[in-house]
Design brief:
The chain is elongated. The protein folds into two domains: 44 residues; 30 residues, no CATH class. It is 91% helix and 0% strand. The chain has two helices and no strands.
Length: 75
């Protein structure tokens, strides 16, 4: 009986470890991608603050875009 519980505990620990490792890999790849985008933008003369400002304006820009599309489609 104890052997079954031990094996189940090892399987659960392995699954949790794999999930955490996957989460760490995703976080690192996202951080690297964001870093590369910022570096490329800086090469073209944009600052990280410009990017943040554009991200903050994104809902308004998308709303205007949707409004324009509705006008074009006659909705």
């Amino acid at each position: 009986m104890n052997l079954v519980i031990l094996i189940a505990a090892l399987i659960v620990a392995f699954l949790v470890f794999r999930a955490l490792l996957s989460l760490l890999q995703t976080a690192l790849s996202t951080a690297i991608a964001i870093f590369l985008i910022v570096v490329i933008l800086m090469f073209f003369g944009f600052s990280p603050q410009d990017l943040l400002q554009e991200i903050n304006n994104l809902p308004e820009i998308l709303n205007q875009f949707i409004t324009q599309v509705k006008k074009i489609l006659g909705l």
